[in-house]
Amino acid sequence: MERLSMRIPENAAVILKGLSEAGYEAYVVGGCVRDSLLGREPKDWDITTSARPEQVKAVFAHTIDTGIEHGTVTVMIGKEGYEVTTYRIDGEYEDSRHPKEVQFTSQLLEDLKRRDFTINAMAYNPDRGIVDAFDGIGDLERKIIRCVGVPQERFDEDALRIMRAVRFSAQLGFEIDGPTKEAITEKVQQLENISAERIQMELVKILVSEHPEYMRLACDLGITAVVLPEYDRIRGVSQYTPNHIYDVEEHTLRAMMNIVPDKVLRLTMLMHDFGKPDVKKMVEGGREIFYKHPEVSAAYAEKIMRRLKFDNDTRTKVVRLVKWHGLKYDASEVSVRRALNRVGQDIFEDFIKVQHADIEAKNPAVIPGKLALLAEKEKTYHKVIAEGQCFTVRQLAIGGLDLIRAGIEPGPLLGAVLDKLTEAVIDDQRMNNKEKLLELAEKLKDDPAVFTPKEDFFM
Predict the structure, then answer these.
(1) Are the CB atoms for 323 and 299 separated by under 8 Å?
(2) 281 and 366 fall within a common domain
(3) What does pTM read for this prediction?
(4) Would the pLDDT of 1 be above 70?
(5) Closest C-alpha to 254, from 262, 263, 245
(6) Smallest Cα–Cα separation from 356: which of 382, 375, 333?
(7) What domain count does the chain have?
(8) CA dihedral 119, 191, 228, 364 (to 10 degrees)
């Protein structure tokens, strides 16, 4: 038992003291101990105790049964809630996720034995210090992720721990020890038993960590082959073009590292080139091209994010950013207005961040010029917005009702005319005048070319 001291929140200390005065053992446990020892601010303070759930409820005035079948009661101190869980021993696991039964115990060590990694299997009490039965402190010093006990048994209990190993490695910059790695490769197929929602949560945590490039490790260990096979397809895909010196995987990893740790943006950079293997072609001179890869990548992103049960808002933003990340446009106001029309103002600043990250992961020889052009585009974008320039149907000086009154039937023709009017105004802001637009609409309604789709250009 280590005599190191830790600072814990006042309310957590109140709970420990209350349980102790009632005759029970109680410790803060797991991630909060780990993070405190690393000098990080813990997000949650979980408490483990020898008291049974009904005994915990008897000690405190305000509790909530949040997981009482597994021994967990939330104790409310004012408006703050703390999860208090009885020491337990898990029964046999049949589905790589849930124990068939939970048995309560009075022994802290028995509870710590069932935890995933040594750095998460430490407990602390101000009176007794740190309980570190598996050398978690040593592994923190060595920067090692190591399973408690036999790794294969820990992964049999909950296969998601396979991804959690990579997640902690990415968050902390730690290595996974040899036996734990071997057990991961041996047990990785069990991830098929884990729900899409839980896979999604761990994937996102890896991506928004300090080391999103550890996705390479997830691939090396066979994890992506099970949960994200689309990633494996970009490994080793060459890019013989003036813009690139890295293969698609290396470019992807660097692009993720170049952008802020935001869920939408990191997911976008992860998947922005997933379509390249499908469209890769070699042209004269040995150069390789990836025509319309953003659109193919967007289709992959849509499929993946539905499969992993992402919320609609995240999915639609990522798919749109992937689709448009390669849009070619220059720094003129007309070109920026057209880009705004295609991409959408709501995600345009994210779109600029995506293009910036993409550029920085290209051939160093082309980066300065491309970044300088992007800076000019961003400057123009702010000018267009500040001046209230028109680039959408909603900003036109006329609306659908005006066109109906002018004799254009509601339906596809009406929508097509409005689109063409918007394109005309994007080209020339002076056209955003009711009379001029009605005059142009009169010509467009009988022109078969009105249904010609917009043309877009991709890298």
Answers:
(1) no
(2) yes
(3) 0.92
(4) no
(5) 245
(6) 375
(7) 4
(8) 20
